[in-house]
Amino acid sequence: MNATPIQPPLPTTTGDRRTPTDGTATPFLRQTFVLKNVLGLHARPSALLVHTLHHFASEVTLEVDGHVVNPRSILCVLSLAAGYDSSLTFTFRGDDASQALLAVKHLFETRFQEAYVPAPVSSPLRQ
User: Whole-model pTM?
Assistant: First the structure.
């Protein structure tokens, strides 16, 4: 598979992609985000991305430097080794693609801050 170079951050694009089996068009949304986390896309933000996408039925792919992975897998996301200022291109296909795009956009706009909020501690000793 030939890798295409990542474009600079662009607005959301829409289009269709012909499937090789039946020739029908599948609508999609594509958005490129620039990662502004100083530590890059390490375990916590990667886990938050994976968790966020599990709420949507749409097919999603993530591309960094020509490598395309399934962003629903934390190992795939971590394998990209996306560092500060990396361009990450997401492609969404499906009925809830626009909602999934908005959820991912929120993560990048907030710099994955939710990943750093401590979880509530519940202890059987506290009663």
Answer: 0.75
The structural domain count of the chain equals 1
Q: Which of 42, 51, 55, 106 is catalytic?
A: 42
| 51 is annotated as an active-site residue | no
Residue ranges in the chain whose pLDDT is less than 70: 1-25, 123-127
Residue 124 lies in a domain: no
Q: Which of 76, 55, 56 is nearest to 67 (CA)?
A: 76
Q: pLDDT, tens digit, for every residue of 27-45?
A: 899 999 999 999 999 999 9
The whole domain housing 91 covers 26-109
What angle is formed at CA 8 by the lines to CA 67 and CA 71, rounded to 5 degrees? 35
